Amino acid sequence: MRDIPSCPTCGKEHCEVVYNSTLQQNPSSMASFNPYSAHYQINRCTHCGLLRASPILDEEGVVKLYRDSSETNIAPGEETNVQRTMRRYYRLAQPFLDGRHRMLDVGCDRGFILEEAAKDGFKEVHGLEPNPAARQLAAHIKDAVLSDQFYEQTSYPSSSFDFMVMIHVLDHLVDPRVVLAKALCDLKPGGVMMAVVHNVESLLGRILGGRFPPFNLYHFYYFSKRTLGALFANHGFEVLKVVSTSNCYSLDFFASRAPGVPQVVRRMAAGVLKTSGLGRVPLTIPLGNIGIVARRPL
């Protein structure tokens, strides 16, 4: 295990414990472990309020969580609904895109954002995805350039991209400062960055407290609109907007995954939906995520 010694938003070290760790032993020592079944100790920066996990797994342990994963981030049967969500995300940045030559999606999963960018006129679409199952599914996208590298491992020429995307990536990074400094260099002047993260100050986050689903071993930071905007502004970006976002899923999905609802109630709801035939009906609602659009200053 290792510490995250300072806050990436303000650089201060002092913090207070909000939730104690629920991790009983090192996942690396177990043949099978569910990274969503526990969370690290969660601390609040006493200067800016950003929540961060610490201590966390060492580098080898974090990489192992991703390399050993046999699943994508998309639940079976929800592909069309997630594609609708990604289309909504892309539209957050679309009005600010001046150039459409080359874009990069960091953590592209199945490549839905890459598809949207290609449809919108981008000549080159690049995606990074260390999860082999997701990357294999993204391989069908015509002319997409895919890599299994983590973004920190890449080496692009300065000012390579008109547009960069990080959907649920920043909160997975041990040090977002390193990645934002690199992104600022990799973007062209005036180039746009769009990112989405969980909102710890959402209604769901406030109600569930320590049971908030994003509190798991994949996440190291838990942002609010204020701390997310400050992170980008303090590291050289011009913040264009920070907004709440919505997600599209089927009623079946909501019934089976509703956090904080007893399992017996979820099963009853799933049965009613199956009997009525309404389970596949899509629903688009705010689920506690926030999106930011920022750009490299001219």
Written description of the protein model:
This protein has about 300 residues and is an alpha/beta fold. The chain contains nine helices and eleven strands. Strands 6-5-4-7-8-11-10 form a seven-stranded mixed sheet. It has a four-stranded antiparallel sheet with strand order 1-2-3-9, with no helix packed on it. Helix 2 packs across helix 3. It starts with 14 loop residues before the first strand and ends with a strand.
Separate helix tally: 9
Number of strands: 11
Evaluate the radius of gyration. 19 Å
- The termini sit apart by 41 Å
Query: β content, as a range?
Result: 15-25%
- Name the shape in a single word: globular
Lateral arrangement of strands in the main beta sheet: 6-5-4-7-8-11-10
Kindly state the percentage of residues in helix. Answer: 25-40%
Structural class: alpha/beta
Low-confidence parts lasting 5 or more residues at pLDDT below 50?
none
Main pleated sheet: 7 strands, mixed
Give the mean pLDDT.
88
Write the H/E string, N to C: EEEHHEHEHEEHEHEHEHHE
